[in-house]
Amino acid sequence: MKKIFTLMLLAMACTLNIQAQEYNLFDAADVDADGWLWFDTDEKIEKYVGLCNEEDYKIDPDGKLIQLVYADIMPDYPSAYADSWFVGAGTDGEIGSDGAKTGTIVLPVSSGSMEENGGGIALKLPSCKTISFCISAEGQMTAAVKASKDINTTFTNYTTIKSYLTGFMKLCGAGVHTWSGIETFHNKMEDETDYTLQSDAPIYAFIVNTTTWRQLYIHGVKITTPTAPAGIEEESVAGKDKIFFFNNTISLNEEAQIEVYNVAGVLVESAFASRLSLEDMSKGIYLVKVGNNTRKVAVK
Asked: Per DSSP, which regions of the chain are E strands?
């Protein structure tokens, strides 16, 4: 019985750890209540989107989290670009129709069907737990997801971990779509190197348009990591300021003033207590402040 109880405690501890270690990669003030970063303002594009190292066709180690990669097609090498005013395809696949989103990263076409040389974006990830995109298209699309664990790898040498084909293996059809589960894509190479984007260490992703007749429109991205962003402590050092979060409930070592803010910085909940449930709040990202310590939490 004692052994079973100990195993149960270990399992609960592992579950607590997994639940706790998930943070949005982007600043709370820049994402919506569900944790999405939208490319609908010049300020957010300027903050998070930049160019890759175009001379070497690699990620710029000093560049932005999201880097634009040109299509590797002679002689023009069409550029991927971000535009906060660009309107994508609506639910029927027509540009600017009902449901269309404003603010877009535009990925140019490839040179041939399923050729991995269209325009793309590279993600410079300090670590990764989940990745989702909001995309739109004017018709059937294909794409490839590639990865590397070495920042010095050229994009042409990234490992392909998912390749969409025409027909039943397409990325999407006409309309607006949420593309999720990207972190689970997986490819074991002959040398037994196992690539997925889920990682506790830095990893680099390259999403490339492989469609020869249509541009791919990316309107938003949601990325979570197992590592707390700079300035946000997963738990404070000791005493009443130590913040735990599990099953949508804040717990402290002892009673203290708890303040909960939404991503806009508005105080939405306050209490003097050792436990505070956020179960009734809308799903999304919140900042919990206790004394001099702050923790970012995700209500699910």
From this structure: 23-24, 37-38, 49-51, 66-69, 81-87, 102-107, 120-125, 130-137, 143-148, 159-163, 175-179, 187-188, 194-195, 203-209, 216-225, 243-246, 249-261, 267-277, 284-290, 293-299
Rg (C-alpha) for the chain, rounded Å, is 21
More confident residue, 166 or 268: 268
Among 5, 18, 3, 29, CA closest to 262: 29
SS3 labels along 89-100: ECCCCCECCCCC
Phi, psi of 266 (to 5 degrees): -90, 130
pLDDT digits (tens, 9 = 90+) for 117-138: 999 999 999 999 999 999 999 9
- DSSP summary character for residue 6: H
Q: Residue for token digits 């404070």?
A: 236
Give me 136's structure tokens: 């739109």
Containing 3, the helix (H) or strand (E) segment is: helix 2-20
Determine the length of the chain.
300
